[in-house]
User: What shape does this take?
Amino acid sequence: MDAVVMLGIFAVVAVLALTVHFPLADKANPSDTTFVPVPEWYFLFYYQLLKYVHGPLEPLATWILPALFFLGLLFWPFIDRNPARHPTARPVALAAGGVFLLVVFGLLGVSLRDLYAVPRMNPAVGRGKAVFEQFGCAGCHRIHGEGGAVGPDLSYVGDTRPEREWHLKHFRDPQSVSPGSIMPKFPLDSKQLEDLTSYMLSLKREA
Ligand code: HEC
Assistant: This one.
């Protein structure tokens, strides 16, 4: 019987892992101060609980409740002396377990809903960043303190140059919009042009 249940649970977990998209966060970005780290999924329910508890009640959630839970588990064999194993003969234990699972999965659900709502980085911006590195733009341009100072600092170029068209033209031929520019023309294909421009436009004070 145990083996059957274990196999069943394994199958359910495997199917969930393959079919349900889990909201992974973006890659770590040291210049992004709005990033909120979240714990692994199996701690999300507790993380969610802690969001609701503030002020003088905080110790209750941070250590009194967990301590009671583990003490309860530890002493459960001494508290519950009922020898029966059939579920119908153990209504209290069954109800307690049911409520516990309901609370845990309810909190997990709320937490996941919040996680799905976190805005993700546009994938074009990620690809544009890779193009920026590939062509060595940082040799001349600084972004958030990294890179050379031959060309202008691009940390907030999305604020100062907000038009997509301008960037596309500039990348195709820098001199056409900035006469006398020493920025070289790069052999970018149209996809790289678009991605690089998306990256440039994303460099703003308010992300
Ligand atoms: C040889 C140095 C050099 C390299 C390499 C270089 N740039 Fe430039 N860049 C400049 C200079 C100088 C300017 C200012 C003149 C101009 O606007 O073209 C400039 C201007 C810019 C501007 C306009 C900034 C503004 O505020 O007007 C952007 C955007 C830009 N570069 C992006 C890039 C990207 C992306 C790359 C890599 C594909 C790159 N640059 C590679 C020198 C360089």
Remarks:
- Residues 25 and 37 are 8 Å apart (CA to CA).
- The mean pLDDT is 89.
- Residues 132, 135, 137, 139-141, 150-152, 154, 157, 160-161, 167, 174, 178, 181-184, 186, 196, 200 surround heme C (CB under 6 Å).
